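Can't paste images in this forum, so I'm doing it all in text. The chain is below; anyone willing to post the predicted structure tokens underneath?
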Amino acid sequence: MLNGRGNQLLKGVSRSFYISLRLLPAPMRRAASLGYLLARTSDTIADTDTAPIHVRRECLSEFSKCIGGLSKFSNWPNSMVDAVGGSRQRHLLDQTYLVLLELKKIPEREALLIRELLETIISGQELDLIRFGHTSFENPVALLSADELEDYTWRVAGCVGEFWTKLGFLTLGKRFSDFPENELIERGIAYGKSLQLVNILRDLAEDLAVGRCYLPVKHFDNTAELLASHAIWLEKAQNGLADGEFYADQLKSRFLRVASVLPALLARKTLEPMRGQTWSGLQQRIKIPRIAVYDSMIKAFFKAPKNH
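Text version of the structure:
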């Protein structure tokens, strides 16, 4: 599936990350692509806010059981499918059975890494629905502490850095990197968390409009407090992206380095316009044009690694 129809499915639900997946060495590509499709499926379920909360939670729970081999997938309930607005997202849900079937075909150790990854991601998505499922502009909710934000970014993105690293060493061995695996995992986790932070910082005003705030602030209507918190976490995100660039420099394959560093280069393009912004400026949606994606890819490809 992931050789033909699966590639089209990947391309349909991703713009920039599809490029990273296509650049991966063949031994890594299948499991990484499959993990991404499964994560995008659970993301579609969790983010379809026109579906009732209890339906989304039930679907996530059942999907998790199917991934873990504890249940057989039949069909998504009509209340879930009918609520999905985008045709590409609906097509992704239509292919769930085939994606799960692919999970049964790959080597068991790779499948185990995927199952561990999705278990963590779905736990973060379920926690999101519990925290923010019934919020509104009139009834806002914010995370209570920096620890809660760190935990959330680990669950939905930091774990991807760990997965990517373990998969690389499992499938490529020393061809992946000479850097110590445990230390590279730490860098990968910091990198993944920073990428999620970039999304949170970019979407701050949009999230607040529906009563959801990932930044641990006490006063939702205090723009000075929001801007101060935004600036603190922006620096945290910048540091994590630096970890990501260091991470990529430790990889042996040029294509693998490009695949790994490309999200960091694009994230920096998203962060730059937010630095020092007014509250009015943060309310303007930032979107990276397609030409910038290809420009970043070209720069990453010709960038010489620091350690080789």
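The beta strands are 141-142, 212-213. The first helix runs from residue 5 to 13.
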